[in-house]
Amino acid sequence: MARRADEHVVPTRVMLPRRVVDGPARQVAKRLLMALVVLAVTVLIVWLDSDGYHDASDDRVDLLDALYYATVTLSTTGYGDITPYSDSARLVNVLLVTPLRVLFLIILVGTTLEVLTERTREDFRLKRWRTNLRDHTVVVGFGTKGRSAIQTLCATGLPKDQIVIVDPASKVIEIANAEGFTGVLGDATRSDVLLRAEIQKARQIIIATQRDDTAVLVALTARQLNRGAKIVAAVREEENAPLLRQSGADAVITSASAAGRLLGLSVLSPSAGTVMEDLIQQGSGLDLVERPVIKAEVGKHVRETDDLVVSVLRGHRLLGYDDPAASPLQLTDRLITIVRASNEPPLNHTPQAAPRA
Q1: Contact call for residues 146 and 208 (beta carbons, < 8 A)
Q2: Mean pLDDT of all residues in 179-186
Q3: Mean pLDDT of 114-132
């Protein structure tokens, strides 16, 4: 029932990051001021050369007549009741009044032209974005968990244009746009919303919704649309983790139990809790990274590497550092290591952020 209600409330659209522009009221006020300036200049020109104009009613052109003439001349082609008859007045009309009339009309229709131009530009940007988007990351939910996941990805070098955020709240998508991310407004349990995020071409999907049942539905829909993407999801309750794995998630993080274990560890050993918290925080102190084995390490024991190796990823098997099968290292292995965040890794390491528990 909640999903049906959301379908009627939440619109679906892609929102690309926008450039900072003035609001509509400010833009209209600027154009109105420009139009008044053009009108005032025209009135002044006609009034200063009033002797060169002829009024059919009283043969005299005063300030009010100049205002009337300028208004009808700028907005229309004029009525012919006030006409320039001297050579100087006609020359001024050709060189000054006519360009001011064109400028006045441009100002009046500028808003409409800008709307049409902006719409065309946005359509072009959207088509180009869809065409160029490949192997990107889709993040469902831009709350605390989603933001932390994105910060970790960006800290490891993932560009912002390779991240697409899906969220049902328009204010959240606006905040994401302001931070430079592309957002898709809509319910992520619907396939058409995920297709707008080009999920069928995504390399990895992060599900960070507020509800566990929503996460299960999103995982089912995402796996149906993309069989090869890596799906990582967060759940609040540990009992829902197996269901989420059956729904297609490759990795499931239980946020509530993980926080509880960290609290318990901090009570038993505050120093160990500090180390774990340091590992969780990306970009400071110690970091967990995943990197390939370099040629100089091939054939060596796990403990003979320069980094502190925690696990060895061989194919689809994750081997602990103390597993006899982990050594010797092979060229196709990948290492989960602990490194100092301030130290830049070697160029041939090409580290990636390791999955956080």
Answers
A1: yes
A2: 91
A3: 77
